[in-house]
Give the backbone structure.
Amino acid sequence: MTGETPGLATILIGDDPASAVYVAAKRRACGEAGIRSFHHELAASAGRDEVHGLIDRLNRDPRVSGILCQLPLPPHLDPAETTNRIAPDKDVDGLTVASAGRLAVGLDGLRPCTPSGVMHLLEDAGVELRGALAVVLGRSNLFGKPMAQMLLAADATVVACHRRTPDLPGLCRQADVLVAAVGRPALVQADWVKPGAAVIDVGINRTPSSPGLVGDVDFEAVAPVAGAITPVPGGVGPMTIACLLRNTLQAARTTSG
Ligand code: NAP
């Protein structure tokens, strides 16, 4: 214990409505957890120098334990360059090259929030990962790649899939653990799932009709086949926020020495 209150700086650039909702939820969670919130909103036209200047100031600010720059960014800003401006010790999204490298070689560090949340869910459900076959649908830097690495580190045998993967249904049917993060509504059907498998639905897809938000898994069809399954909304999403708060606390402990 250091006696210092952890602080999370959030940066929202532009007027993407979904990003505004996500950042508001993260700030609300900070308030509930006793973490100070420092929020910065920049116009969609904000230039590279303005954004980098803000991140540099936050990197130096001792009240700020963690910095989160909400993605996606307006098209004129490079997301990799912007993210990598964040000091690795304050990278609570775990998305800088430094954090990705630490995960890849098995060093301690700040881990990406959504795959960390999935690992907690699997552990909480008592899913045995050692020796399990885990199939991850999606290979993004944000989710798929770190997810695959965390499962591998937990001694699962991992298959990372993407658009060019042949016979997705056949591969998925062999999985003890199936994690879907592709952004395709109800892509995963009941006949893609091995009976008793743990199915984690990371997808968030907005539909014009009710229920509004759906995942990548056809929940109604898959639930009777799966041994465990997460719903959308209410499954992985809240875990992402919980892991962000946890990372902020971890960063506060690190930065305060
Ligand atoms: P992304 O960057 O668009 O990556 C999507 C991945 O899915 C890519 O690797 C793509 O393959 C693959 N893919 C797309 N369509 C496919 C298909 N028909 N068959 C096989 N693979 C396919 O997306 P992301 O950022 O990883 O996010 C994925 C989903 O998770 C989105 O719905 C997003 O909203 C959601 N998400 C949720 C949370 C949360 O907190 N719950 C957090 C992050 C993301 P290629 O590489 O070949 O293009």
Notes: Residues 114, 137-140, 142-144, 161-164, 168, 181-184, 202-205, 236-237, 240 surround NAP (CB under 6 Å). The chain has two domains: 1-95, 113-237. Strands lie at 7-13, 36-42, 66-69, 133-137, 157-161, 177-180, 198-201, 205-206, 213-214, 228-229. The longest strand covers residues 7-13.
